[in-house]
Specification:
Number of helices: 7
CATH architecture of the largest domain: 3-Layer(aba) Sandwich
C-alpha cells in the first residue's frame, strides 16, 4: 500500500466503536506508507453540533480534529448537516447530495404533483435540489420558521401555499420532533397526504411514531444508517446510496475542478 491512495468505508453512527476502528485503520495505513487516506463515512454523526454555544460541545470540530490526527486526509459523506460543518473541519469534507435519489422516488411513486415543503429554512436548499433533479418547477419553496424550546420544537407562522399532498424533504429523522411539529401545522392547513424523504433514518425513541396519526403515508430514508430492526418496512422504504458512493470515489482537483484521484 506504500504510495497508494486508500479509501476506508466506515461509520460514525452509534455505537462509536465503528468510529474508533476507522481511526485505528487510518493510522495503520499511514504507518504502512499510504500516500493519502480518504474516509468514506456515509453518516457523519455529531455534524449537528456545529454551533459555538456556551457550555456545549462543538462536536463537529472535535470529530474533524480526531480524523485528521488519525492520518485521514479527506472525508466523503452523504448529505452533511450544514455548510458550517465544512468550515469547522480541518481537512477537506465533501458531501454527496441525495437529490437524484429522491427525485427518482418522486417519479416512481407519482408524487410530482405534490407540494415539496421544507420543515425549516435550513432545508430549503435540499428541497430545491430535489425539484431540479425531478424536473419540477422550483418556484417558492414553502417552509416553516422553527424555534427550539425547552418543551420541544415550535413552528411559527404559515407554511405558505400547499396542496392536498405534500412531500417533506430533510437531512434526517432523529427523534422526529421537527417533523412532527411540521406535520401538525400541515394538517391544520388542510393537507391530507404527507410523504417524508430523509437521508439519515435514525428513528431515535418513539416520538416520531406520532407521524402516522398526522397524515404521513410513508417515510423514505437511505441506508447511510442501518435501519432499526423493529421498524415496520410496510411504512418505511429504504433507498440505497450505493450508486452515489460508487460514482464518487474520486476527488476534484482544486485548480481544475475535475475528478482526478481514483480511490483504491
Amino acid at each position: 500500500m506504500s504510495g497508494e491512495h486508500c479509501v476506508i468505508l466506515g461509520t460514525i453512527a452509534p455505537p462509536d466503536e465503528g468510529f474508533l476502528s476507522a481511526m485505528l485503520l487510518a493510522h495503520t495505513l499511514k504507518k504502512e506508507g499510504a500516500d493519502k487516506v480518504t474516509a468514506l463515512l456515509p453518516y457523519l454523526a455529531y455534524s449537528r453540533q456545529d454551533k459555538d454555544k456556551l457550555g456545549e460541545s462543538l462536536g463537529t470540530a472535535w470529530i474533524g480534529a480526531l480524523l485528521k490526527g488519525s492520518g485521514i486526509d479527506r472525508v466523503l459523506t452523504v448529505d452533511v448537516h450544514s455548510g458550517r460543518d465544512k468550515e469547522l473541519f480541518p481537512i477537506p469534507l465533501a458531501s454527496l447530495s441525495t437529490a437524484i435519489l429522491f427525485a427518482e422516488v418522486i417519479q416512481k411513486h407519482r408524487l410530482a404533483d405534490a407540494t415539496i415543503v421544507a420543515p425549516d429554512n435550513g432545508a430549503i436548499g435540499r428541497c430545491e435540489a430535489v425539484k431540479r433533479a425531478a424536473g419540477v418547477p422550483i418556484g417558492v419553496t414553502p417552509y416553516f420558521e422553527k424555534e427550539r424550546t425547552a418543551k420541544g420544537i415550535i413552528h411559527h407562522g404559515s407554511v405558505g401555499t400547499v396542496g392536498a399532498r405534500v412531500v417533506i424533504v430533510d437531512d434526517m429523522i432523529d427523534t422526529g420532533g421537527t417533523l412532527v411539529a411540521a406535520c401538525e401545522k400541515l394538517r391544520a392547513a388542510g393537507v391530507q397526504e404527507i410523504y417524508i424523504l430523509v437521508t439519515h433514518g435514525l428513528f431515535t425513541g418513539s416520538s416520531w411514531l406520532q407521524l402516522w396519526s398526522l397524515g404521513v403515508r410513508r417515510i423514505f430514508c437511505t441506508d447511510t444508517v442501518p435501519l432499526r430492526s423493529d421498524i415496520d418496512a410496510a411504512n418505511v422504504t429504504v433507498v440505497s446510496v450505493v450508486s452515489l458512493i460508487r460514482d464518487s470515489l474520486s476527488w476534484p482537483d482544486k485548480e481544475t475542478g475535475r475528478m482526478t484521484a481514483r480511490g483504491k
